[in-house]
């Protein structure tokens, strides 16, 4: 009985050896046989091995056709199937109906990218690290040789953006263009959610309507150079930019259009990064010690002033100035004389009169167009339309802000080295002033001082 | 079965006879109900195709029937026996027309009366104060002030008569001014009276009637106005005047300064044969009626012709010796049943015709809906 038990245990041990251990020993012995010191040694150098190789299943892909191996001429083995068919023995096929196939996949050229035995990178790719080495085997690498290169392109991580096998998106992208970009450019994604104004291409088109995706000779991977590129859509600005008699310096230096505009989104009209007047005051709101003809510090003109010029109340500098260029003095949107003396003629004051009463300076007598009159005698006409010595608006009014009503210049208008005081006193029906120009003179709308 | 046929035949004859009788009775009654308001078949638009439509002819008002819907019925004559009680009140020979708060004030020259039409309340009434000292002889144009007082230019009395908001006569201006007032307009406390006789505009204090100034034909602007026939003010207060003998539309300010002019005598676009009524809408567009061309021309504030409408020759929507015009953006909904579903009306235009079946033609200015 005891002998029976010993025989039974011995039989179990033999069975275990035959069923479990011997195949391992057998396959390892096959693998060992393939990777001898003189054969297929290079397969040992890969960091990652193809799964059948790990399993020692060389025969999963290779089939012996003659006993003798190695042969001096010819091969003792052949592949069990040709091209992609061999891969599809184990891997799932790509359905062409599910998306556009990479050409190499469509043609069954798996080995164009993959090494069937092993690799030092992921996915048994022919090369690890910089994938451009593989991709440029087929794709032209010339466009990548630019001054500015997109980070993933520079690093050769093509698969951060592209699916190497199949995709429903253009250029085998992993996602549609905008979503793909916003995966990394998360700051844009957050900003777009809160923005009230979004640059049209971001809404209607893709990021690549403005940006190159791989490399560009222009900063920010733009497709063109600064304003000229912007003018490809904003055509109406090109003429102004090129031909304006008075040019806005900001458009011609550093970030150019980007000096004033946010390229992607904003909470302000015209993609300005902040309130329009604040954008302007970035340059025009500080003392300028850098140039011989210094920019005026407009901020000091506005600070603590009781009355702001109407458009400035809304922060709307562009109501008067054209930031893209103008043929008029100080980038104004219409004609206004540069000199202190400028008799009124039709069109001379078109800038002021485009908002203010257009008939203000037309008639020597009026009961309608101005309160600055003695009876019906139009004192605006008297001051400005004098054909010999008509004074421009600046003789009495500030352009931006004042503590006086009607933006009257309380500090006095610059007249050479002197500031001409105005000393305006208003009454219910008129007023008087005693400027540096004449003795104190009064006017009264109801009871004219100067009788006819 | 044949028996049934024999039995039913007399019933069928009786039924047919009854139907014929009812038909003729209806025909008889319908003949006694007075003139039907004929609705245009399909919408009438101006300008004609292929231009996009900007003005639609909506309807006409020629008598009280068109407003209150009450018709002179044959049955009511028989039943009540008093035809005058239900008789429609016709518009005889309308000239000037004014609109305020959806109400129309129509000067009916021949009978010497002023009709107040309220489409919202469906009322058609004659001015209450038109008797005794307030009796109109030949009212030609009217205007309303901010308090609802009505100023009526009467060419035969050579005065401007003032009626209160309730229609009662208040006073008359013009005695001693030796004028022939043909139109009036209000600007704040100023009453502008257009004087055909002296070719000028008299500016009166609207409360006292005191003559403040005369413009349009002073030493500086001699013959600026030439047989002026109609005036109106734009939203900024400047005055537009139509002139019959020069064919010009003159734009003046209250001081009499010439601000602009356009038009001349002729039969071209933007020219006039006999300019009559003129009005300015709240957008500054100027509408000028032409009694010779029998149409209305619309200009922008720069005097550029925008379009014209109402020319003769159409079954509906043509004018017949037109005279007065009024424009409003109020009360459009009251005419919505006439507005083409594809058309969106911004302004209602009322034009009087001195002859023809349509004494007041109602048009809508607008555009096709998107």
Q: How would you characterize the overall build of this protein?
A:
The complex is a heterodimer of chains A (452) and B (370). The longest helix of chain A is centred in the first third of the chain and has 33 residues, at 2-34. The radius of gyration of chain A is 41 Å and the shape is rod-shaped. Chain A is an alpha+beta fold. In chain A, strand 12 (373-374) and strand 13 (377-378) form a beta hairpin. In chain A, 27% of the residues lie in helices and 10% in strands. Chain A folds into 5 domains: 1-34; 41-138, no CATH class; 146-221, no CATH class; 230-329, no CATH class; 334-444, no CATH class. Chain B is mainly beta and 370 residues long. Chain B has 2 domains: 1-31; 44-368, TolB, C-terminal domain (Neuraminidase, 6 Propeller), CATH 2.120.10.30. Chain B is built from 4 helices and 25 strands. Chain B has a 5-stranded antiparallel β-sheet with strand order 1-2-25-24-23. Chain B is globular, with a radius of gyration of 24 Å. Classes of the chains: A alpha+beta (452), B mainly beta (370). Chain A binds chain B through residues 359, 362-363, 365-369, 376, and chain B through 237, 253-255, 257, 259.
Nutshell version of this structure?
Chain A is an alpha+beta fold.
Overall shape of chain A: it is: rod-shaped
The share of residues in extended strands of chain B comes to: 35-45%
Uncertain segments of chain B are 1-10, 26-41, 73-81
Subunit organisation of the chains: heterodimer
Averaging pLDDT over every residue of chain A, what do you get? 90
Report the sheet with the most strands of chain B, covering strand number, pairing sense and barrel closure: 5 strands, antiparallel
Q: Quick one: how many beta strands of chain B? A: 25
Give the number of domains of chain B: 2
- The side-by-side strand order for the widest beta sheet of chain B comes to 1-2-25-24-23
Query: Roughly what percent helix of chain B?
Result: 10-25%
Mean pLDDT of chain B: 88
Please report the distance between the alpha carbons of the first and last residues of chain A. 153 Å
| Most extensive contact | A-B, 9 and 6 residues
The main pleated sheet of chain A reads as: 3 strands, antiparallel
Q: How many domains in all of chain A?
A: 5
Element-by-element helix/strand order of chain B: HEEHHHEEEEEEEEEEEEEEEEEEEEEEE
Q: Give the low-pLDDT segments of chain A.
A: none
Write out the strand line-up for the largest beta sheet of chain A, numbering strands in chain order: 17-18-19
Q: Roughly what fraction of the amino acids of chain A lie in strands?
A: 5-15%
CATH H level, superfamily name of the largest domain in chain B: TolB, C-terminal domain
């Amino acid at each position: 009985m005891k002998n029976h038990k010993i025989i039974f245990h011995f039989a179990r041990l033999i069975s275990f050896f035959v069923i479990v251990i011997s195949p391992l020993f057998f396959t390892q012995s096959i693998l060992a046989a393939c990777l001898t010191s003189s054969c297929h040694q290079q397969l040992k150098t890969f960091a990652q091995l193809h799964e059948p190789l790990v399993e020692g299943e060389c025969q999963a892909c290779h089939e012996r056709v003659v006993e003798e191996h190695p042969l001096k001429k010819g091969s003792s083995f052949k592949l069990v199937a040709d091209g992609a068919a061999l891969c599809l023995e184990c891997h799932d096929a790509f359905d062409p109906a599910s998306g556009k196939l990479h050409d190499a996949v469509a043609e069954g050229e798996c080995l164009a990218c993959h090494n069937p035995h092993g690799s030092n990178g992921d996915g048994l790719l022919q090369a690890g690290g910089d994938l451009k080495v593989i991709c440029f085997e087929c794709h032209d690498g010339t466009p990548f040789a630019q001054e500015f290169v997109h980070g993933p392109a520079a690093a050769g991580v093509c698969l951060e953006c592209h699916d190497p096998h199949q995709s429903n998106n253009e250029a085998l992208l992993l996602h549609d263009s905008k979503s793909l970009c916003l995966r990394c450019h998360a700051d844009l994604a957050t900003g777009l959610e809160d923005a009230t104004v979004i640059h049209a291409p971001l809404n209607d088109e893709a990021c690549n309507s403005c940006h190159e995706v791989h490399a560009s000779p222009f900063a920010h991977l733009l497709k063109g150079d600064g304003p000229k590129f912007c003018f490809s859509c904003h055509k109406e600005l090109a003429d102004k930019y090129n031909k304006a008699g008075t040019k806005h310096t900001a458009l011609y230096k550093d970030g150019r259009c980007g000096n004033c505009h946010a390229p992607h989104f904003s909470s302000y009209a015209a993609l300005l990064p902040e309130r329009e007047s604040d954008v302007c005051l970035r340059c025009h709101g500080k003392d300028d010690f850098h140039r011989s003809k210094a920019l005026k510090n407009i901020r000091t003109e506005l600070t603590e002033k009781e009355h702001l010029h109407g458009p400035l109340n809304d922060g709307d500098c562009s109501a008067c100035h054209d930031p893209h260029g103008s043929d008029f003095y100080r980038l104004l949107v219409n004609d206004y004389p540069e000199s202190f003396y400028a008799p009124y003629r039709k069109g001379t004051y078109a800038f002021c009169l485009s908002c203010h009463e257009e008939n203000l300076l037309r008639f020597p007598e009026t009961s309608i167009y101005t309160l600055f009159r003695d009876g019906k005698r139009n004192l605006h006409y008297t001051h400005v339309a004098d054909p010999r010595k008509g004074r421009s608006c600046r003789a009495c009014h500030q352009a931006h802000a004042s503590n006086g009503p009607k933006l009257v210049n309380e500090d006095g208008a610059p007249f050479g080295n002197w500031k001409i005081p105005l000393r305006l006193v208003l009454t219910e029906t008129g007023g008087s002033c005693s400027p540096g120009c004449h003795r104190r003179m009064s006017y009264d709308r109801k009871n004219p001082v100067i009788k006819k | 079965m044949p028996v049934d046929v024999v039995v039913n035949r007399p019933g069928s004859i009786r039924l047919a006879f009854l139907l014929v009788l009812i038909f003729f009775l209806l025909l008889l009654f319908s003949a006694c109900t007075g003139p039907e308001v004929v609705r245009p078949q399909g919408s009438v638009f101006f300008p004609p195709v292929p231009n996009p439509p900007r003005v639609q002819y909506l309807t006409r008002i020629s008598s009280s029937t068109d407003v209150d819907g009450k018709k002179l019925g044959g049955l009511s004559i028989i039943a009540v026996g008093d035809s005058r009680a239900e008789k429609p009140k016709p518009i005889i020979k309308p000239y000037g027309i004014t609109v305020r708060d959806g109400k129309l004030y129509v000067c009916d020259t021949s009978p010497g009366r002023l009709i107040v039409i309220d489409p919202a309340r469906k009322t058609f009434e004659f001015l209450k104060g038109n008797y005794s000292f307030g009796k109109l002889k030949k009212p030609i144009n009217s205007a309303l002030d901010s308090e609802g007082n009505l100023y009526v230019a009467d060419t035969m009395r050579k005065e401007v008569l003032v009626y209160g908001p309730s229609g009662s006569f208040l006073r008359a201006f013009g005695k001693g001014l030796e004028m022939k007032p043909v139109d009036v307009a209000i600007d704040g406390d100023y009453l502008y009276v257009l004087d055909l006789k002296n070719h000028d505009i008299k500016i009166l204090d609207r409360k006292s009637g005191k003559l403040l100034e005369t413009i349009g034909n002073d030493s500086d602007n001699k013959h600026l106005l030439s047989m002026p026939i109609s005036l109106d003010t734009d939203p900024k207060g400047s005055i537009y005047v139509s002139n019959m003998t020069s064919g010009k539309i003159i734009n003046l300010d209250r001081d009499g300064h010439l601000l602009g002019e356009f038009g001349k005598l002729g039969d071209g676009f933007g020219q006039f044969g006999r300019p009559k009524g003129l009005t300015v809408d709240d957008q500054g567009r100027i509408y000028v009626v032409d009694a010779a061309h029998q149409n209305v021309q619309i200009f922008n504030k720069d005097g550029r012709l925008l379009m014209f409408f109402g020319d003769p020759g159409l079954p509906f929507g043509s004018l017949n010796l037109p005279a007065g015009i009024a424009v409003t953006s109020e009360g459009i909904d009251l005419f919505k049943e006439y507005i083409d579903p594809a058309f969106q009306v911004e302004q209602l235009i009322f034009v009087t015709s001195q002859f023809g079946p349509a004494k007041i033609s109602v048009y809508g200015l607008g555009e096709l809906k998107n």
